[in-house]
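User: Assemble these into one structure.

Assistant: Restating your components, then the assembled model:
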Amino acid sequence: MKVLIIEDDPTVSHFIRKGLTEASLTCDVAADGKRGLQMAESGQYDAIVLDRMLPEMDGMQVLQHLRSKRSETPVLILSAKSKVEDKVVGLRSGADDYLTKPFAFEELMARLELMVQRSAATPEQSNVEVTLTAADLTLNLLTRKVHRANQSIELQGREFRLLEYLMRNKERVITRTMLLEKVWDYNFDPQTNIIDVHISRLRQKIDKGFAVPLIETVRGAGYRMRDNIEDRMLS
Amino acid sequence: MKAIRDFSRSSSFSLSALFTALLMLGVFFIAYFIVISSDQTLIRESEAAIDVDAKGIQEIYYLAGIDGVTQTLRMRVQDSTNSSFYAIQDQDGQMLVGNLSDWPTDIKELRTDRLAVFNIDRSFVANIPSAIEKDAQSYNVLGRTMVFDGQYQLFIGRKIDDLEIAQWVGRTFGWLIVFVLCLIAGISLWVGYYVVSRINDISETADRIMNTGDLSARLPVESTWDDLSSLAVSLNRMLSEIEYSVNNIKSVSDNIAHDLRTPLTRLRQRIENQFDEETARPLLNEADNLLDMFNGLLRIADIEADKKRCAFKTNAVDDIVHDVVEMYQPLADDKNIRIAAEIKPTSATCDKDLIFQSVANILDNAIKFTPEDGLIQLYCGYANGEVIIRINDSGIGIDADKHNEITQRFFRDESSRTTKGNGLGMAMVAAIVKLHRGKLRFASNPLHTGSGLGVSLYFPTGL
């Protein structure tokens, strides 16, 4: 995966670059809007991290130019503007995700991976699915039944949606903010570790009594639904 | 909202009506006295002249007999400056002298020595006095008769058409005054109406500015001559000044947002890069707390200042409250707190995320400050046509005299210093409630458990 970072603050771009390189991804950095647009138009990138306030050309303009030329490269906007309206404007202009500064690298990484995966998936793939599986856990979207190792598990509405989201994105880091946005569908600031409480409830139901826990806490980032238990146990 | 709903109840209308009434009264009295006095004066003058004339002729009769009288009258009639009518007849009804060809018809009814007004047709006048216009059809004459020694009867009359003219002038002026009065009344009404509608325009614009927070709106200026437009012009100048300052402050706070976030990002990144996980975690937590507080402040300022209601839609408030309860239920369960919720179907025009945020903040506080095995009572429904969301808890509560401090930023009661939190939750609730034009009320010991806090949130169903 090749990522383009359009960011004028060298500390931030250096930080992102370092993190992505550690995750063995290649990346290029553009320090202003015009240069960034030129590089983006070459079409060789799988994802673009775009700062909103840039010299030469504003981040939003870069995005509009890109989208007007039918470039479908997924774009994540990085901005110090945290207002809901700014977010909405950003997403309406064709951005795929929006992250406010300051951010944890894990949050950026999780969102980038999800964004690229989503843009790569064809619509048919996601529609046909009726059952989701992760290791020995299965979730049926039609009957809304959940089983683990042939044991039936009773879940309530929100728990079901939480599990569904985690399972759809198995083996990927899902942050708390992502869960708030996608599972609860409220744009809100919980002021409490409420997501952790819900995850621990879900764990009680699907992990308790089993040798291998499937919901894994990723420190400083969020959670990950495990799928390949054996691989992990070996490593 | 209009400042003056009914224009007839405005002060300018009352004043103009009062002035019009006073003016009418004054003009009426003046006109009355002028007409009365001028009428009387003219008639009295004529009466006096006739009486003097009569007395003179009587004296002549005593001194020179009937011949003297006829002589005198003949001279009078021929005098070119004469403006009187004379006639004298003897016992047999024979006209002796005078400028009337015949005795006036209605003279018989006239008692001697009494004055009366006659209408004398022109045909009666034999010798029209030269001082009298000759083309009139008839003359209005004030006159009297006299009898000398029971033999001769004399008639003396004076034309009073001048008096009629004076009366006509009086009448015409009367109508003119009535017309002017109507004009004044009309103009006063229009002035009243104009002032009221201008004031209403101004107050409506002011309300709009308050409600939408749109400082680019300006008061209408219709002309350059009226005082209200001058006022509007200076108010508009003030608005421009305020708009300029507010925009400055906004851009400054936007810059703060940008300028502080970027170094915070760098700080976080330095911490992540340079320390091991063990050391970094608490530092990152502190940085995140700082950021949360900062975000909270910015968000409150945003809700308070922006007044943008673009996200307002008709929402099922009961669903939102349900979602909050569902989200926070696990927290309550951990402390074995029972949430007794009565949520009735309720819908209102509101911002779904903000209502969720406010109910979540209140419920979060209630759970935080209610000890284990406590009770939280939640109600959602309508009260007096408004939406009410009430959350009562059996927690530690807040003294009643501190209730008005709850919504201040960074308010933390002494007893809650040790609890996690930044003291911005209720300030945010207050800002959200204000945006929804609602009100926030607090009560102590709402469940009669000895302590606890009751928070009630009211807001109208539509904007």
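The domain at 313-460 of chain B is CATH 3.30.565.10 (Heat Shock Protein 90).
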